[in-house]
Amino acid sequence: MRRLLVTGGAGFIGSNFVHMVLEEHPDCFVLNLDQLTYAGNLENLDGVMAHPKHVFVRGDICDLPFVEKLFDEHAIDSVVHFAAESHVDRSITGPKVFIDTNVAGTLALLQAASARDTTRFVQVSTDEVYGSLGDEGRFTETTPLAPNSPYSASKASADHLVRAFGHTWGLPYNITRCSNNYGPYQFPEKLIPLMINNARQDKALPVYGDGLHVRDWLFVYDHCTAIWKVLTDAKSGEVYNVGGCNEMANIDVVKMLLHHLGKPESLINYVKDRPGHDRRYAIDAGKTMRDLGWKPSVTFEEGLKQTIDWYIANQAWLDHIVSGDYQSYYDSMYADR
Ligand code: NAD
Ligand code: DAU
Fold first, then answer.
1. Cβ of 149 below 6 Å from ligand 2
2. Ligand 1 neighbourhood includes 241 CB (under 6 angstroms)
3. What residues does each domain of the chain span?
4. Fold classified for 2-333
5. Which residues of the chain have pLDDT under 70?
């Protein structure tokens, strides 16, 4: 049986990954390490907290002795590393924690993993490490790294550390670089859930700049299946781009959301642009498709519809975040321990 350490498994993509693994891969034990920062939410793990193949531990990936103890106590053999500060706007107003978590935290995990018989370390990275595109072309795995925000610079630094530990210590690793994800459990500071949350309350929808910045959207479940294939089937040392070939201007995404929600376009409010805002991302995922036989399971239209339906059916989840109640969930669950 695989004994997998998942970091950041109470966040958006990490929790979707934990659900997928426990449902679809019964031969895998998951140790879920998450600090429960503002972005971590145990409600994302409803239904699997008591699963016999899942152990949740609250803790900091930067704490090396603690991480080493977890590796040994749970006989960890592989790692999928999601834990990060992930929001570009926050990295512009407060970059320090991005270096602490995304760089120093990744270093601690690499130190623990490389000192043991770890069979694979999967670094979940981002297309943002490649910088910004003009009107033409797509990012491939050989596109030079040119990160533009403190967030993407911290992720690129972590990617370099992963490669260096592979080269110097022989740690078997892969790096995945995915485009923008959307789906259930995404914190409502990111474009799609923020707009759904505002629209349901008839609040203004803040569109940065001219709204013509382009992102390449992928349904979160499809990112998770790609990561699983990389973990189980990829050759060590390879980088894999993951994306859905779904390029959309932000304003078109916002209009689609309003249309599905039956809300008026008059809610759209153009606001001051994000400093250093990357104009366009587009992923060439051909290598991942060819080498690993991966492909997305849904179109953007289907995925967006499922996502909107999920947020509307789970408004209590959004309400707990808006009220801050989600952060007391851990204390109430563990009050007797
Ligand atoms: P998220 O912000 O929703 O979740 C991050 C999780 O990490 C949270 O649960 C948080 O509590 C945890 N965490 C933060 N600091 C920690 C620490 N020091 N120790 C332990 N846990 C800590 O992020 P997300 O959107 O799910 O992204 C997950 C990963 O995927 C990130 O590495 C991100 O760079 C990458 N990624 C995200 C996207 C996207 O569109 N969201 C796309 C490509 C790659
Ligand atoms: O490309 C992958 C990256 O996608 C991940 O690595 C990041 O973790 C993830 O946060 C995301 O980064 P973006 O900056 O692209 O995502 P965000 O949802 O913040 O913004 C998407 C686009 O929408 C971007 O062009 C900025 C714009 N935007 C965003 C917000 C929050 C708005 O116009 N208004 C908003 O209020």
1. no
2. no
3. 2-333
4. Rossmann fold (3.40.50)
5. 333-337
